[in-house]
Amino acid sequence: MYQFFKTIAFQFDPELAHSITVKTLALLPSVFSMYGGIDNLDKYQIETNMGVLPFPVGIAAGLDKNAELIDYFGQLGVGGLEVGTVTPLPQEGNQKPRLFRMAKERSLRNCMGFNGDGAKSVLANIEIANDYPMKLGINFGKNKITPNDKALDDYLILFKEFEQVGDYYVINVSSPNTPGLRDLQDKDFILALNQELIKMKVSKPVYLKISPDMSMSQIDQVINVVGESIFSGIIATNTTHIPELGAGGVSGRMMREKSREVRRAALLKMSAFKDKEVIGVGGVESIEDLWEFWSLGGKFMQVYSSFIFNGPKLFTSLSQRLDWLMNYYGVTRVEELIRLAYLEKVKLPIV
Q1: Model-wide pTM > 0.85
Q2: pLDDT digits (tens, 9 = 90+) for 125-157
Q3: Catalytic: 121?
Q4: What is the count of structural domains for the chain?
Q5: pLDDT tens, 294-323?
Q6: DSSP calls for 276-316
Q7: Which residues contact 170 (CB under 8 A, 6 or more apart)?
Q8: 8 lies in a domain?
Q9: Residue 42 structural domain
Q10: Residue 26's domain is classified under what CATH number?
Q11: Which among 33, 174, 175, 251 is annotated as catalytic?
């Protein structure tokens, strides 16, 4: 079913195809959630700072910008859905065309620029959606017209707007598509935001999403700041800029190795801080990616491009591989697989 749909969709402009897909899935979530997904979620549950997630893999920000697909992904059975990036005000984003497929490389390049309907529209969509075991994250970004010296105000507006909504929040200061945004991956900005969140008594988990294009010294600095803050951890990583391909950020297989390197460094550094965690994203598409992440101390990963190229059967395939592994090792829960990978350093068997 998905292969048939993808064959047709890939004949169209990528952004148009994505828009049509979102509207279709939002209109008929129950129908399309039948083509893939996960059953018997109890055995797949994992414990995180966000609480109990029903599955160790979820959907990264960018795929459902305006929170239109909560019912679809909730019925599909994913571990979490991160909506956004949400900005305080609606904005058009960058000039089109701004989304490009690289099908042979199973990758995407986007120059979207935080296009979206704005905070109030996203909030309205969340409020009419049903409740599901998956965790709902809300990814925050500043408006393009907001100068960096006023960026903190935009993020605080969003925290106030979504104060009672969602299960966790993400600070996006790492997209390459908003001029100057990555300059906010800075100790002073993170500390200032941290102080304001303490004053606001924000109780839900907050994560900082970082770029794969940071130097190791920058990663060390950011993690040291996050480790001593009220942040629950980081999300590693956002898209990567590959200059020879043009403007924007690349996701999918073409950024896999770079993202893996940053995740490894982040997991190693973050292990020094109690109760902080790393959420992994960037080129994630297989049980091998998940097992490696677990072996280094991570738990929850997200996908974006691999869902575009594989469809909902990606989650069916992952659940089947997890079932096989639980049977192979004689365990009944994914948490036990994570223990084997991390504490006992058991290697993933070759099948």
Answers
A1: yes
A2: 999 999 999 999 999 999 999 999 999 999 999
A3: no
A4: 1
A5: 999 999 999 999 999 999 999 999 999 999
A6: -EEEEESS--SHHHHHHHHHTT---EEESHHHHHHTTHHHH
A7: 61, 82, 84, 137, 138, 139, 140, 206, 207, 208, 209, 235
A8: yes
A9: 2-342
A10: 3.20.20.70
A11: 175
